[in-house]
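Tutorial, part two.
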Amino acid sequence: MPSKEHHRIFRIGWLRAAVLGANDGIVSTASLIAGVAAAHPSHSAILAAGLAGLVAGSLSMAAGEYVSVRSQADTEAADLQLEVRSLRGNPVQELDELTGIYVARGLAPDLAREVARQLMRHDALDAHARDELGISAYHRARPIQAAVASAGSFAAGAALPLLVSALAPTTHLIVSVGVASVACLGVLGAVAARAGGAPMGRASVRVMLLGALAVGVTAGVGSLFGVAV
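Running the prediction step on this input gives:
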């Protein structure tokens, strides 16, 4: 018997939020620390800024993801309610609509009609949600899952540059935080690509370059203006 397929698309809901949160946690916190350090404050002020960035960023990611995905979930629910009303009021029209979808996908008209009829008899709403609206159980919006994944991954990502800034001497703090953060971004990009089935090298290099640019630009701004940014 052939081996069981393991499709990665089913991970997309939590994987997107987790990768975004961890990446943002590393980049934003490392950039914040680098910008503050470039303005030459005390070591304790740098750590306080980094910790504040971790807490504020985690809460912001959770709130942002929840609101965004909640809006998607509300839209899906409204469309499903509209479909329920259509199925109750115009079942023949809905059958024709589903038949047309299957004909467009390559089925013969008679076969498409029979398939549509049987699927609607089994679960009409599921058939129309999946084939007409593109909504399936695997891809339904999950606001709480997205919020928790984003907040937790942001905090985990932000903890790295914060830990490095706590251990590194002030004279080498920017370089230490920058190097450690870029290296961690490379690992994160490779892991995320592996989980999603994408080329690891390209993903790793992409996030490393973007992260290094963010840290460098923020450090430059902090050094230029002599203020915490």
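The chain is about 80% helix and 0% strand. In part three we will examine how such features are distributed along the chain.
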